[in-house]
Model the fold of this input.
Amino acid sequence: MKKYLNNIWLGIYTVLIGMKITFVHLFAKNVTVQYPNKHPLDKAGGDKMPMNARNRIFNDMELCNGCNGCARACPVNCITVETLKVVPGDAPPLKNGEKRGLWVTNYTIDFAKCCFCGLCIDPCPTEAIKMTTEFEYSQYDRGNLLYKFSKMTDEQIKQKKELLANFTAEKAKKEAEAKKAAEQAKAAEAPKPETGDGK
Amino acid sequence: MEHQILTFYDWVAKLSSSELVALILIVTLPLVFLIVYALVAILGELKISAFIQERLGPMRTGPWGIIQPVAEVVKLLQKEDITPDAANKPLFNMAPFLMFTAAYAGFAVIPFSSHFVPAGINLGLFYIFAMGSLAVIGLVMGGWASNNKYSLLGALRSVAQIVSYEIPAAIVILSIVVLASSMNLQVINANQGGWFWNWYVFGGPGSIWKLLVIPFTFGMFLLYLIASLAETNRTPFDIPEGESEIVAGYHTEYSGMKFAMFFFAEYANMFVVAALLSILFFGGWNSPFGDFMNGPIWGVFWFISKSFFFVFVQIWLRWTLPRLRVDQLMGVSWKVMTPVAFLCFFAVGLWAMLK
Done:
């Protein structure tokens, strides 16, 4: 009986709490921005964009180290990253002072595919990729939605490729020489009887 | 009624020296009021729901979107009127109009003012309650004739719900009849004249001993508020519609004007139960402050503001509470409301005998 009455009381009391909450919200400030009339970023719009607003994504190439983490995180595969190894001493460091290990020759986001989930933003180690507040970028041609962030020209890419090819060739040569030298040294040492290992 | 007053009907008949003009006027006035009220209530529902969710609601049609309901009615009028092939056509076409007629018939006895009531019959309370129950027939008819499993489920649920909730509602109404010793809504209103402590929610007129009966009358008010929500199929008791479970319940197959009729009937029913709440418990057309702003014209103002307040409460509750489960719904009615209503009836009956 006590439980029964208590349940009735709780039922009425909790409904009143709910009604109080909705009544407070009835007079709270509305969050809607009358968009085409007022732009959310204008002073006249009166409001800033919410913290979690999802808009066009921007990648800062001065920060991007080409790790490909964003492209792997992307559920719709709209990010394409192509990279080239850097010859030591050739590249300027990243904006945050880290050593640049890769030239990003191609960094493309296809906003016709992008679903604005924001999953690419979390894995970025240098915080290069982030949301902007830009959302008005409709195009008549779908191809125009292909945003290329890498500013490297074809000539530069060709140059860097050559540089890398030369470097690798030189390195290979050096390695081959070193190997040869080591083999020769080994060969010189080979006649000695095997005693040191104790086998 | 013993004391004969010059009613609106007599007044118009005298002015135009024709009973017919008065008759037509007195029949059309509630209909005009109902249509205007339905538009206001639809806008109110849209706007209040928007404000509770911190949105703005409709803003494009007219200044602040105030002609949005007109646009919606025009849209519904333009839509194709579809009757399913497998439906039982006469029943299917009749159901929405029956439901609206039942809702509108309730307006016949609603006293808008001390001098204006379309039909001041002595069984007003009984009549309005009967008409409220008639709505369920339209509902079942629509659900059955649609030949659609969701419609039928909605109709079945609504029957179970309305039959259950009419019992506590009827007992509460019976208790008010015991208090007022009349079923004439004008007499019930007139009994509650004077200051607001004479309202039946505060035990009606009486000596200081009425403090004993106030908990029961207030409980009756709560019971009738809850039961009226169930009878008009409003949230939290909107399981006959339950759009997340059974599409739209009994009006799944309806489109165009027939759907609009269901829509209007719901809003008309909302006003009828709100009006009944204000008449039975809050003095109807009486001013809360004695003779201050009291009179036939002010009576209309008081009556409509009180009724609109309860319509607002219904809308407010709709955007506060989630829908009840079917077994919870039945549990609330049979395990809680019916026994409490009997208790209140007993207490009020005892009070009416001893006072």
